[in-house]
Design a protein that fits this description.
The complex is a heterotrimer of chains A (398), B (385) and C (303).
Chain A: H1 3-34, H2 41-57, H3 62-85, H4 94-115, E1 128-134, H5 135-140, H6 142-156, E2 161-167, E3 170-175, H7 181-200, E4 207-212, H8 215-220, E5 222-227, E6 233-237, H9 238-260, H10 262-272, H11 274-279, H12 284-310, H13 320-333, H14 338-363, H15 370-384
Antiparallel strand pairs in A: 1-3, 1-4, 2-3, 5-6
Helix pairs in contact in A: 1-9, 1-12, 1-13, 1-14, 2-3, 2-4, 2-12, 2-13, 3-12, 6-7, 9-10, 9-12, 10-12, 13-14, 13-15, 14-15
Chain B: H1 3-11, H2 17-36, H3 44-73, H4 81-96, H5 106-126, H6 134-154, H7 156-159, E1 165-166, E2 177-179, E3 192-194, E4 200-202, H8 206-227, H9 230-240, H10 242-247, H11 252-278, E5 280-281, H12 288-301, H13 306-322, E6 326-329, E7 332-335, H14 341-355
Antiparallel strand pairs in B: 1-5, 2-3, 3-4, 6-7
Chain C: E1 8-19, E2 22-33, E3 37-41, H1 48-55, E4 63-69, E5 73-75, E6 79-81, H2 83-92, H3 104-111, E7 112-114, H4 117-123, E8 125-127, H5 140-147, H6 156-161, H7 164-184, H8 199-212, E9 217-221, H9 229-244, E10 248-252, H10 256-262, E11 265-270, E12 273-278, H11 280-285, H12 287-292, H13 298-302
Helix pairs in contact in C: 5-7, 5-8, 7-8
The chains are: A alpha+beta (398), B mainly alpha (385), C alpha/beta (303).
């Protein structure tokens, strides 16, 4: 077995798992209180990713974009609850489930009409480059070269250039936030080529080097790595570390809110018995709305983090598969159980990655079957242990 | 007060009488159009389009009637009806493509086999899920359908994989076969049907249209009879209350199995006919959203009601097709993106569920009110008092 | 009927049901005699409804036996070979389950299942529920027709083909259902929705549905709950007629006047155990019973 592949897949599995866990928590909280599989939850995750990348592309700093996406999605979650689910609180249980499918359909296609059907990449986060001449000859004519490239960039970047600065022998070029990554690189490449072409007419050996230095670059650098000889290496990128930190921090915050605060207690009371909770003076509708808000904010975070992790593939259909997987995670952990959802998310991430990297290979089937394994696991859990891994054994009602 | 609840109360204020009137007024012309679609005096392009849309509605209605058995009668939400439509479609078309299947009437054989094969899977999926109710059942059906889709997409040697299964013979009606021209569903305008006795039929495929209409009527008849039988009543009882259904002597497992088998059979036949309509089967058609469209139609029409399943399908699928048309308003051309039709379905689902959860054509509690005859009361065992 | 009096129709022995660590019914022994009206009484939470659920197969007993002396004597609590279950186990284990057929213990564990409630109903035990459980969306007539389900045989194919058997059975079902409605006085309401009936009428409809299964033993769970005195009197007359028609009645009731007046035999439960058993007169004076109900209770004074 290839150790580096295994280690990298493990990192991948836990990252995906963390993202699934963030979504699963929303499913499980809503299910715990109103016994509804909120099919639209995957779409909230998708909205989160979209709002995030659109804000970043407009120049909002990453953390601000994340916070805004959380806030807007929380509002969206509450709005969905009030418009689509609240009128059906006392209807047969199938009714809100069907409504949820309707909301999911609506959101997907609304996003498609609004922002288009094509998939988008994640915008560059604060892209910046250090351009430096290479070799004595180039260094000698550095000023001239760098001025050439600076002028070239200024004329062609159409305002996407944020900041250009001479730092000794080097030229620091910062682009505006949200400029799409391939765009900035090709812009810089073209400018460099043009500047060199001007010089080379007389001096064919001159060269220029451009080094990426922005936040984007930093996030893609390994925080930790081991080389195992050859081209095999285990890398833990900073952005993965960042995703893990955010996911874990939010989970801990959620645990604190649910276990310690008054609202958390009210939520748990509603999950046990809404009627009694109402008699105790708890505004049940408000608590349900708060549940939707928290779940949606976490799903939005998952969306932004996933977009950051993958760097591409942000489209109106991106919510479907993670939504289903997160639901599976919630069932796996024991639906209604928040810690179970966290555990289930991680297990699902591991299963998906393991199925893709190993199991399908052992069985000699196409690795496209990776999703079938997750669905198969879901069916097995429902059939064999519907209370999930951490769910309480459902006491039969006397 | 919640604005949605308020609006719902206003809507239901007249007890639904308005809807009944609107329904009856629309019903007769709609039935006439469907029955006579191939013969209506319309310009060729519009006529063909009308026939095409009507045919599509008919075929979806067959699937919806199938779904209605499990979801409408027995009350188990099925989000994976597409799996059976796909099994029926692939089985029928793959069989129909075999050289030894080229004989007069073979179309009926492959339709039957497709339906039965779907039925087998209905039972296989149903057996382990007998204990499940509500959301859990819905999720298993959904997951099963996704696994089926992944299988179909990846086993290209059998199913053609992601490109779909194509180039199978066009429906062999009354022993005829198509020569020349390109067959694109009902819109075929060139080529002709050649029959063993030497006659040639030029023009559209009205035979296929009436074949499908016949299947729909057959399905309606079967459902009508089932609804009014011991089995149908047991299904309704299971939906209303599983516990008291059991203590009333209903064997849940076998009654549910019956429902799964019947449901999958009709979905399979409907799916197979859909495949023959377009001469291609693909997971692009048979995906999760197929289940959603059928469910949407059933919910809109009214779960547990034959009229609801058929009427709902004609509204949802018909309107959905209408949205594909370019609409000219003055100088402006309105063209809705193909996928955006689902936006409309989504809004429709929410509105119907919030405002009229029992659907537009709900099942009535009783239809006949004839005096009760007690001459055959052989099962009454309490003596004559 | 007099010749069958004092032969038990159902005898419960050592019946125990525990939920987790809590025992709802503990070592319960009692029997109901053919042609009699037996009442199960006791404070709330005494385990009366649990006993009903155990007899009708809705719950699986932790221990004990429930012998039903119908056409033949069967223990309703025992697991029996279930072909459908066996087939499913066999399929699920990719056929390996077939091997278990050879080993008696394995066969018992894998292929035997407790009888389902519908089988128990088919033996001749019917019941009603404490909170009325009608099929609300169905008509009054259809509710009773569902009760007759287990006494007909035609399947979906018969229904679609309108076979001779189907037509005959449907005729019998409609006629018999009408007679059962007649019996409880609801025939004129046959085509109304079950939910449109008044509370007392819904109770009677539920009884009609239970009777339609053709029971020898009818279990009534708090039939008089929520009824006014007139309705209660009507109900008492109805139960007397049911008994007169040859159906043994076992009932749970809190209305002591009702119980004392109608019962031939009373079994008193408290905390899942039987504390008294006997005729109304015996039970009324039993000190244990008086203690269970409020120390010196109203019943004590009513003697």
């Amino acid at each position: 077995m290839d150790v580096s592949l295994f280690a990298n897949q493990t990192i991948n599995a836990f990252t995906l798992g963390g993202i699934y866990a963030l979504i699963a928590v929303g499913y499980t909280m809503v299910y715990g209180i109103i016994k509804l599989i909120n099919f639209a939850h995957g779409e909230i995750y998708m909205m989160g990713a979209f709002i995030g990348i659109l804000l970043i592309a407009r120049g909002v700093p990453f953390v601000g974009a994340l916070a805004l996406a959380m806030l807007l999605c929380a509002g969206l979650g509450v709005a969905i609850d009030v418009i689509a689910y609240r009128p059906l609180r006392n209807a047969p249980r199938l009714a809100p489930l069907i409504t949820a499918i309707g909301v999911s359909l609506f959101l997907q296609n609304f996003v498609m009409l609004l922002w288009g059907a094509s998939e988008r990449p994640f915008p560059d986060l604060r892209p910046a480059f250090l351009v430096r001449p290479i070799g004595a000859e180039a260094l000698a004519r550095g000023d001239e070269l760098l001025s050439g490239i600076e002028g070239r960039l200024q004329s062609s970047a159409f305002g996407r250039l944020k900041h250009v600065e001479r730092r000794g022998d080097e030229l620091y070029v910062a682009f505006r936030l949200g400029t799409e990554s391939n765009d900035t690189r090709s812009l810089l490449r073209d400018a460099r080529r043009d500047a060199l072409a001007q010089m080379r007419a007389t001096e064919p050996t001159i060269n220029l080097d451009a080094e990426e230095v922005g936040l984007e670059h930093w996030l893609n650098r390994p925080a930790w790595s081991i080389h195992l000889g050859g081209d095999r290496a285990v890398e833990l990128k900073w952005k993965v570390v960042f995703i893990w930190i955010v996911a874990i921090a939010l989970m801990l915050a959620l645990e604190a809110v649910v276990q310690q605060t008054k609202m958390g207690k009210a939520m748990r009371a509603c999950a046990l018995d809404k009627a009694t909770a109402a008699l105790m003076g708890i505004d049940v509708n408000k608590i349900i709305a708060a549940t939707f808000a928290i779940g949606s904010a976490l799903a939005a975070t998952a969306g932004v983090l996933f977009a950051l992790y993958r760097g591409s593939g942000i489209g109106y259909r991106m919510g479907f598969q993670p939504g289903v997987f997160a639901f599976s995670a919630a069932v796996l952990g024991g639906i209604g159980n928040i810690r179970g959802a966290m555990l289930g998310g991680v297990v699902l991430g591991v299963v998906q990655v393991a199925a893709n990297a190993y199991i399908t290979g052992w069985l000699g089937v196409s690795s496209n079957y990776e999703f079938a394994f997750a669905f198969g696991l879901l069916i097995l859990v429902i059939l064999i242990r519907p209370t999930g891994l951490l769910g309480r054994a459902s006491a039969e009602r006397a | 007060m919640n604005p949605a609840s308020w609006a719902r109360d206003q809507w239901n204020a007249d007890g639904g009488a308005l809807w009944r009137r609107v329904g009856i007024v629309c019903l007769v012309p709609a039935c006439l159009v469907v029955a006579l679609a191939p013969a209506l005096p319309l310009p060729p392009a519009e006529g063909a389009r009308l026939m095409d849309v009507s045919l599509l509605c008919i075929l979806y209605a067959i699937v919806a009637l199938g779904l209605n058995v499990v979801t409408g009668y027995t009350g188990l939400l099925d989000l994976g009806i597409v799996a059976f439509a796909a099994v029926g479609a692939y089985t029928a078309t793959i069989l129909y493509d075999r050289p030894w299947m080229q004989f007069p009437g073979s179309l009926f054989v492959v339709l039957l086999v497709g339906g039965l094969h779907a039925s087998v899977w209905g039972v296989l999926r149903g057996a382990p899920t007998l204990r499940l109710i509500g959301d859990y059942y819905a999720i298993v059906t959904f997951a099963f359908a996704e696994i089926a889709r992944i299988f179909i997409r990846n086993e290209a040697w059998l199913t053609g994989g992601g490109n779909g299964y194509k180039n199978f013979p066009v429906p062999n009606l009354l022993g005829g076969h198509l020569e020349g021209g390109e067959y694109t569903g009902i819109l075929k305008t060139s080529g002709y049907w050649s029959y063993p006795n030497g006659t040639l039929w030029h023009g559209g495929t009205w035979q296929f249209y009436y074949l499908c209409l016949g299947f729909l009527l057959l399905a309606v008849g079967v459902m009508w009879r089932l609804e009014r039988s011991r089995v149908g009543r047991a299904w309704f009882a299971i939906k209303a209350d599983e516990t008291s259904a059991m203590t009333s002597g209903i064997h849940l497992s076998s009654l549910k199995m019956h429902a799964f088998a019947v449901s999958a059979f009709f979905a399979g036949v409907g799916g197979a006919l859909l495949a023959f309509r377009t001469s291609t089967v693909s997971t692009n058609v048979f995906d999760f959203w197929f289940s959603v469209v059928v469910l949407c139609a059933l919910v809109l029409g009214g779960m547990g009601s034959i009229g609801g399943a058929v009427g709902g399908t004609f509204i949802v699928v018909g309107l959905g097709e209408l949205l594909r048309e370019e609409i000219h308003m003055g100088g402006i051309v309105l063209k809705v993106d193909d996928r955006a039709r689902f936006l409309f379905f989504g809004v429709l689902l929410v509105i119907v569920m919030v405002f009229k959860p029992q659907g537009l054509f709900p099942r009535r509690v009783t239809t006949k009110r004839e005096p009760l005859d007690t001459t055959d009361a052989t099962l009454f065992q309490l003596g004559d008092d | 009927m007099t010749d069958t009096v004092s032969t038990p129709i159902v005898s419960v022995e050592g019946l125990t049901k525990r939920f987790g660590g809590v025992s709802a019914v503990e070592e319960l022994d009692f029997s109901a005699h053919r042609g009699e009206i037996t009442s199960l009484i006791g404070p709330n939470g005494a385990g009366k409804t649990t006993a009903f659920n155990l007899i009708t197969g809705l719950y699986e007993p932790t221990a004990g036996s429930i012998r039903f002396h119908g056409e033949r004597t069967v223990d309703l609590a025992e697991a029996v070979f279930d072909p459908l279950h066996a087939a499913m186990v066999s399929v699920a284990s990719v056929g390996l389950g077939v091997l278990a057929l050879a080993i008696p213990a394995a066969r018992q564990a894998l292929y035997h299942k407790r009888r389902t409630p519908d089988t128990i109903t088919s033996f001749g035990i019917a019941r009603t529920f404490q909170n009325i459980r009608l099929f609300g969306a169905l008509s009054v007539l259809d509710n009773v027709k569902v009760g007759l389900h287990g006494r007909a045989r035609s399947g979906p194919v018969d229904a679609v083909a309108r076979s001779k058997r189907h037509r005959r059975e449907e005729r019998e079902i409609v006629s018999s259902a009408a007679k059962y409605l007649d019996f409880v006085g609801l025939r004129s309401r046959a085509y109304e929705a079950a939910t449109d009936l008044a509370y007392g009428e819904q109770r009677r409809l539920e009884i009609a549905r239970a009777l339609a299964t053709g029971p020898q033993l009818l279990l009534l769970d708090e039939p008089a709950a929520g009824m006014n005195p007139t309705e209660t009197n009507d109900l008492m007359r109805l139960i007397e007629r049911i008994r007169a028609a040859g159906v043994t009645v076992l009932l749970i009731e809190h209305d002591m006047r009702f119980v004392m007046e109608i019962s031939d035999h009373i079994v008193v439960l408290d905390h899942g155990r039987k504390i008294a058993d006997g005729t109304p007169a015996q039970v009324r004076t039993n000190p244990e019973v008086i203690r269970a109900y409020l120390g010196t209770s109203a019943e004590g004074e009513a003697v």
